[in-house]
Amino acid sequence: MTDRAGRWAFAALVWALVGIMVLLPPVMVFAAALSHGLRPAWDALCDPDALSAIRLTMVITALAVAINSFFGVMAAWTLARFSFPGRGLVIVLVELPLSVSPVVGGLVWLLVFGTQGWWGAALERWGYPVMFAPPGILLATLFVTFPYVTRTMMPMLRHMGRAQEEAAMTLGAGMWRVLWHVTLPGARAALVSGVLMTTARAMGEFGAVSVVSGHIPGLTETMPLHIETLYNGYQTVAAFAMAALLALMAMAVVAVRGLVERAAVSMGDAA
Predict the structure, then answer these.
(1) In 3D, which of 201, 207, 193, 191 has the Cα closest to residue 250?
(2) CB within 8 A of 68, min separation 6: which ones?
């Protein structure tokens, strides 16, 4: 009886923590967004600057996911399959964006491509500005989202082993054919999970993007930056409407990731 009471107490504690820390914030965001009705929230999302922020967020997210998915797969496959001098250092560098503040990453890009940086002045003279423009936002997003595909795929690739790949190579398949037709299908669930994590992180990134964007409404403001601009301008309903939309997008990504992982577990049990 005591053990059962203890389990119920721990379950109640967990539900209370989840409710306060996870469920309550989005509920309050949606409540604030709809505090004056649906029409003001909808009008705020239809504002030209808001639409520009949504569009820029989607474009940057799509590019970051595509680029980091490709290089993440390459990095995971190389690190899981081969031993080479400096391999441990490469793994540490891959995980570096998870360890340092995103603001540090933004400052590094500012040092390299800013007006006073190593290449920034030359690029601006040639008509290709990087900082305070979409290319700088993309670089900052690439930095903070790089580890996710690599870190989700490496354990799966180690678990798969090399037997199937070696058999395919023995039959004459090249590296790219093996990777596309043997390795990736076997690590499909890990790849999808990493891509979805990258997507969610890219959509919500604030720190690094804030450093390199310049906060120019309608030009270099992503959704998180636009939320800050609206809130600082005392446009509370508009700020929470944008925050609610961003939360819905993140929830959708998390829900899809959960479905993918559940399907992968079900397929594993069936096998």
Answers:
(1) 201
(2) 142, 145, 146, 148, 149, 198
Instruction: Express each pLDDT in 20-79 by its tens digit.
Output: 888 888 899 999 999 888 999 999 999 999 999 999 999 999 999 999 999 999 899 888
- Local structure of 117: helix, strand or coil: coil
Q: What is the largest CA-CA distance in the chain?
A: 77
Which 3 state secondary structure label does DSSP give 85?
coil
Q: What is the DSSP letter of 173?
A: -
Task: Give the end-to-end CA distance of the chain in Å, rounded to a whole number.
Answer: 39
What average pLDDT does range 108-119 have in this prediction? 81
Single out the residue of 104, 102, 68 nearest to residue 224, CA to CA.
102
The DSSP output letter for 206 is -
pLDDT of residue 267: 60
DSSP one-letter string for 131-158: TTSHHHHHHHHHHHHTHHHHHHHHHHHH
Q: Which two tokens mark 34? A: 């709809």
Q: Are 209 and 106 in contact (CB under 8 A)?
A: yes
What whole-number distance in Å separates Cα of residue 172 and Cα of residue 176?
12
Strands (E), 32-187: none
pTM of the model: 0.86
Cα three-residue angle 97-57-262, rounded to 5 degrees = 70
What contacts 38, CB < 8 A, 6 or more positions away? none
